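Worked problem 6 (solution included).
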Amino acid sequence: MFDNDVTTTQGNLKTLVTDILAEAARQGASSAEAAIGSSSGLSVSVRLGEVETIEHIRDRGLGITVYFGQKKGSASTTDFSWEAIRDSIRAACSIARYTSEDDYAGLADPARMAREIPDLDLYHPWLLEPEAAITVALESENVAREFDSRITNSEGAAVNWHEGTHVYGNSHGFLGAQSGTKHSISCAVIAGRGSEMQRDGWYTSARVSADLEEAKQVGVQAAGRAVARLGARQIASCTAPVVFQAEIATGLFGHFLSAIRGSNLYRHSSFLLDHLGKRVFPECVRIHEQPHLLKGLGSTPFDSEGVATKPRDIVASGILEGYVLSSYSARKLGMETTANAGGVHNLIVEPGRKDLTEILKEVETGLLITELMGSGINIVTGDYSRGAAGFWIEGGEIQFPVQEITIAGNLRDMFLGIREIGNDVEKRGNVRTGSVWIENMTVAGS
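Solution. The predicted structure is:
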């Protein structure tokens, strides 16, 4: 039913990219780049013991960008017939001829192209048939529903597998391909007591199905988290230490990445403008990029411009060592690309020596954040305000769940106010960090 001959897929797409670049040159482009993606997958969801959805996914698309000197035009299509592709190239060329010159436009430096494409062990197809996927999803939800009598309802469980191939080529002669997989199991349930209801969930995600948490464990985690939130209350407004649970702390470093992204820097839209070489975190903090981690969810040998990726420190001993730049943003800033066209690749926040339990024991009075709501972040000023839920801590122990509060501060002060980073590292995404203890934040409650 599924064609998973990745070698054949890569070969066909490479040939197509080569033909597209040749056609762009024939139509007058001085240089060009093309990217093609092809993916397939399965998504199954169940709720209250019944199948809700079964979705087979097949997707493909290509994008072509051409340059006439410093003039740029782009077009895309999902129709892979040669006639449609040729029309897309013609459209991109037409756009380029009538756009204004941009001194910073163009392909990445040819000297920066990836010369070797290492095998990063990213392709591990699961290929579950729908019946098997339904069985896994039901197992997770059933365990969650039976976990505690206070689990009164379910938002369901889901199983997903995905595989895809990406090919990029440009007029420098670069032609690279990579294939990868990503699979997940998730579950969310509702706990109730009297008129109160609380919802929570859990998920597991990995490139290799064998690396996923067991479906039963996902259900147990989802139910346990929902039950633990029963009895949540507001607290009085105060200033207090705040600990961000690891999966929530990833968002903090997502804001940091936004602040050092080239597009925000050259637009003067970042509170970390001109902070290269300056302290932005305490001395204990190291943040580095590891694009070649085997099986890493963010691993890649080259960025979306074909530039070779390599490990690097972004923050060392609390000092900002580098930005996140594509070729275009680097030229605008008078710098060189950091191979981050398309984003960062496995951002690692170096963990400390203590796990979450040990960190909480040192928090005499404070707040553990397990959920954030809203998006009150201003990257220009660094102002931060989010709705939150979690648990109140006293004497180093969790006392009761908390809801309907807001935490606020400024990202500049929050980053400098980090006291501890845990070793309970969140590994389900492109940003890896442990729990983060920030010395003080404003908490608005009752």
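Discussion: The chain has a mean pLDDT of 96.
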